[in-house]
Amino acid sequence: MKKFLQKALAVALASAMVVGMTACGDKTGTSASASASKTSVSASKADDSTSAASTEAGIAGWTKFDNTVDLKIPVYDRGEGSNGVKDVVNNDWTKWVQEQFGDAWNIKVTYVPITRSDVLTTYALLAADKNLPTICAEYDYPKMTQWINDGYLVPYDVEWFKQIAPTYYSRMENSGVINLTNVGGEDYLAFGTRAYGFSTYTWATFYRLDWVKAAGYDKFPEKLSDQIECYKKIKELGLCEYPLGGTRVTGAGVDQNHGYRDYPQDEVLWATTGDYNIPALGTEAQKRLLKVVNEEYNLGLIDPEFYTKEAADAQSDFVNGKSFVYSCYLSSTIAPLESFYAENPNGEVGLMVCPGYVTDDKYNWSTSYRAGLNVGAYVGFSSMASDDEKKAAAMYLEWLAQPENLFTFQWGIEGKNFEYKDGDPVAISTEGMGHNSNVDYWMLVEAIKSIGDINKDCAAISPQNLPVDFTADIIANYNGQLEVYNQGKANVDCYFSSAIEAEAEYAQTLYSKYEEYRTQLTKCAPEEFDALYEELSQKYLKDGYQAVIDGRKAAFEAGNGTHLSK
Amino acid sequence: MKKEEVVRGAEVNSEGNRAIVKFRISDFVMMFVITLLSLSCILPFIHIAAKSISSNNKVIAKAVYFWPKEATLEAYKSIFADGSLGKSMIYSVIVTLIFTALGMVVCICGAYPLSRVRLRGRKWLTFLLMVPMYFGAGLIPTYLLYSDYKLLDNMWVLILPLVYSAYNLLIMKTFFMSSIPDSLEESAFLDGASNIQILLKIVLPLSKPILATISLFYAVGRWNTYSDNMYFIRSEKLKMVQYKLYQMVASAAEAQTTAMSDAAAVTSTPEVLQAASVMFITIPIICIYPFLQKYFVKGTMVGAVKG
Fold first, then answer.
1. Which domains does chain B have, with CATH numbers?
2. How far is B6 from chain A (nearest CA, A)?
3. pLDDT tens string A209-242
4. Which is it for strands A186-187 and B10-13: parallel, antiparallel or unpaired?
5. CB of A436 within 8 Å of any CB in chain B?
6. Which of A212, A240, B78, B226 has a Cα-to-Cα distance from B106 of 20 to 30 A?
7. Is the dihedral of CA B149, B152, B158, B162 positive or negative?
């Protein structure tokens, strides 16, 4: 009997673990099948409210909820909690929102951290757990259409939204693209705005002005052929071995071919190949672009090892005087520029200015660029939220859009974070302001901080503590882009209101293939370029680009795409 | 006259005093290869250390290799002033200790019965326990499972799911089978000892090397794993220090490659601060590692014995 008990104990010890494992297996199996099915979509639109509705629109018409309503707002977690940035879901600003907004309307505001480097996975996990935030927000329109397709979002009644959030809605209307709310015939999206959205003035390219002067020019040449001549002279003078440096393909948006397109653009070609994420290998515009790169390479203007270099290498090359250009977003502090002046005290840096619409027939080139919309982040209501929660979300957007609340969120505390200079706020410290002055919170309303005057806005992002003030150049660049835009030579990409499945399926493959093919096309002999381009274009189409083009064409012809602005 | 013999190029006298009097090419090649391997581990570390105490200007210019330039401790001051990395470090140590303790309990409780011949069906049980080594449920089912168990955003999600390790259990079971003879148990039974008494008073005291080795495997495994933090933890205070470091580096890389996207411009942690954070997190492990290294070697040897 004792032996039996001993054996039983031994079996029990091992079996306990097996049972645990088996239980896990059953559970996960069930979960797997559950996750395979689409997230259920709430049948009701976001248009009912259990609270008494007032006829007065906006905050004046709101009534306090009888029972506390949970409001979950997504906020990007950029993982820099140890870099002086506080916990993104629990800090002075989240407490401020609760005190100023939540407590006033009996709403418990909770922030949901969204891993910035893996947004789709984070939302997928939350959706699988039926625990989506009350609103889902993202900068990328295709992600929103994908979430609509996956059932994460529900449509809302525009009149209901206007009643609760008239300030927010009027901002959307003033953006000029209110039709973006409509996806597949129903209003799913709200969106924050972006001042001067057509322009890319916050992105700048700096260059070695001292080298340009040494090459015999007083400023950076406007035409491409003159620019190439300038590079050649810089190389001949021995100022720089490879003036254009060069890097491997890094990130989305590489090799944008807007400057090589024929204007006015063919609308179908624009809709099917004119996007931002998948390089348009196979198009005439891309051929022109890559042919110029090939010429520059064969002239010895590009580093032969360019395909091994990362963005950080391009940055250090510029700082070390081994490269002619460096591009980055503008902000009051640009560390690489500070490093440049520290390493090259006699160096001169200029900022490339768009000269307006300039063409160069030799290369079929122009100063056209990719225009953007006056849209910041897109916002959609979760299919898992109750009507009260959706109403609370609309109230939150309206409260956030109030000028005084937005200003406080963006500028912080007077005396600590900003002070007034000639009547305008000037940032003096970002302490306690998180990333880019809390942008991850107020992005739901506005993408960039704007005083409302382009000259002042340009001054606000002009890099400080440098020997040169770039403000005038930033303004001139903006005005040049405005001129190009007004001539209809800068177009916004086509926005599809239905998900293009081939994009999701092939984008990553095509991205990798493009990197490979681009390297071959850059390094080949000029006389071999045309034949090689044709050969690689065919391969690229077979790699999935043809499927992407077909998917976009079908969606466009079905009326699910925006049209080219005339 | 001393009897001389030659063993692998070294002359050894009969009293056992070895003295290398020949230096063959093969020795040189081996030393060269080992030196290269060692340098491939050490040099990146020295590079990071040098960057962590250099000025940001020099680091951006990629002018720092193995010696600091414009030396400054500003990055370290910043880390200590912020304090959050220090707190995360303490938290990570606590999680690792609890995880290791529980892991050992589970491992011993699983390995010991399975190592005994008298356990019927042990081959079948062992097979079942090995299944998770080869098959996983996938991220979303796992996430839902933890959600059902209320483990999400909870310190225990970093501990409980991984306390069972088939690999560690296999090694420990092999050790018990090869090192603890059945006759020892039988004599203990004759003296009236129970299973628990045999385990606690005979088996475990004789198994100190494997206990130390497996403890180390558990501790280092937990210390180096951060993917579960990424998916199952949301609160800043519950993130382990390794994940914070990963986020910091990933965020900086993202900021560099997000050119002209629709997203807003974002600042990222300066490279100097990243390097200092890496050092801050790594130095404690580097300090204790030499004292634990021998157990890693032992673990490899034990694992090599046929089970």
1. 4-72 (no CATH), 80-304 (1.10.3720.10)
2. 51
3. 999 999 999 999 999 999 999 999 999 999 999 9
4. unpaired
5. yes
6. B226
7. positive
